[in-house]
Design brief:
This protein is of the alpha/beta class. The chain contains ten helices and eleven strands. It has three domains: 3-82, Arc Repressor Mutant, subunit A (Orthogonal Bundle), CATH 1.10.10; 88-165 and 269-306, Periplasmic binding protein-like II (D-Maltodextrin-Binding Protein, domain 2), CATH 3.40.190.10; 167-268, D-Maltodextrin-Binding Protein, domain 2, CATH 3.40.190. The strands form two sheets. Strands 3, 4, 5, 6, 7, 8, 9, 10 and 11 form a nine-stranded mixed β-sheet that branches. Strands 1-2 form a two-stranded antiparallel ribbon. The chain is flat.
Length: 307
């Protein structure tokens, strides 16, 4: 079992032995995930799971021991690779940061520009994808840190989460929309209205679906997209209403689009998350600390050499 397969095993355990859920979060097929485990058990002549009619029911004693050791191995592996990269490059190196497109535009334009400008010897790689894909990459150690929305549903024993910005979701619509004259609107005011929302790869989509379900309302989703500026654009000359974080109003200049807050808004909590480990490289510590201080202490980004 290689290091990635070890992570697959951990993912199965942390998702209550549900292969379907684990495979979706890992973005691999359920048969492939099952095959990894069966192959390992056959090759090592050991059973990791108890089964009932082919369904995983619980860990065997050997499986419990293997899980405990697997967590240690993953941490040691991360430390080994971090130390190797750090000593090999001194203060030169690469930091891979996952940020959803909306959050990148709304919150991280200045942050990333300053990090890159002030540290020419550090390569900052920005992975711009939806929250679900970034979460999968974080689980497989394909990212050094990610910026996601709360809740992330990550194991708090394995990942550290820090809230760096709190705000609310608002409705955005054409100034000609009848609801645009309201100071605030209720969620039920959207009943039967044409909604343009983020697609399923974005956490906001699932937050909205959860909200509508909680009030027993079937929303009229007329359009879905992964582009926040497109969602805003379509509201200008149509009856479409889109729902986005309130700070987005600071990043467009459409006079014919209006933001209307909700009476009972959904909280928009942005978190910086990264794996819990005993050793961070100097570059990792610098990046995490710089982002933390920028958002929580309102301090400008400084170069690593000035830290």
């Amino acid at each position: 079992m290689d290091i990635n397969q070890l992570k697959y095993f951990i993912a199965i355990v942390e998702n209550d032995l549900n292969l379907s859920i684990a495979s979706k979060k890992l973005h691999i097929s359920q048969p492939a995930l099952s095959k990894y485990i069966i192959k390992f058990e056959e090759e090592e002549k050991v059973r990791l799971f108890e089964r009932n009619h082919g369904r995983l029911t619980r860990l065997t004693p050997a499986g419990e021991n293997f899980y405990a050791n697997a967590l240690i191995v993953i941490e040691k592996h991360d430390t080994l690779m971090s130390e190797f990269r750090e000593h090999g490059s001194l203060i030169k190196g690469t930091v891979k940061i996952g940020i959803p497109p909306l959050i990148l535009t709304v919150l991280f334009t200045e942050v990333m520009a300053d990090l890159i400008r002030l540290n020419p010897d550090i390569r900052f790689i920005i992975v711009e994808k939806g929250a679900f894909e970034l979460r999968r990459m974080l689980l497989l150690d394909e990212l050094d840190l990610a910026v996601l929305l709360h809740p992330t549903n990550l194991n708090e024993l394995l990942f550290k989460e820090e809230i760096i910005r709190e705000d609310e979701l608002s409705a955005f619509m054409s100034t000609d929309n009848p609801l645009a004259v309201n100071k605030t609107i209720a969620w039920t005011d959207l009943r039967g209205k044409d909604l343009a929302v983020f697609n399923e790869t974005f956490m906001i989509h699932h937050q909205l679906m959860g909200k509508f379900k909680s009030i027993k309302m079937e929303p009229k989703i007329s359009l879905m997209s992964g582009s926040w500026d497109f969602l805003l654009e379509v509201t200008r000359t149509s009856s479409f209403i889109t729902i986005l974080p309130a700070p987005i109003k600071e990043h467009f200049s459409f006079r014919d689009v209006r933001e209307v807050p909700f009476e009972k808004p959904i909280s928009w909590q942005v978190v910086m998350t990264y794996r819990q480990k005993s050793h961070f490289t100097r570059i990792e510590e610098y990046t995490i600390d710089s982002i933390r201080r920028y958002f929580k202490e309102k301090k400008k980004i400084e170069s690593l050499t000035n830290e």
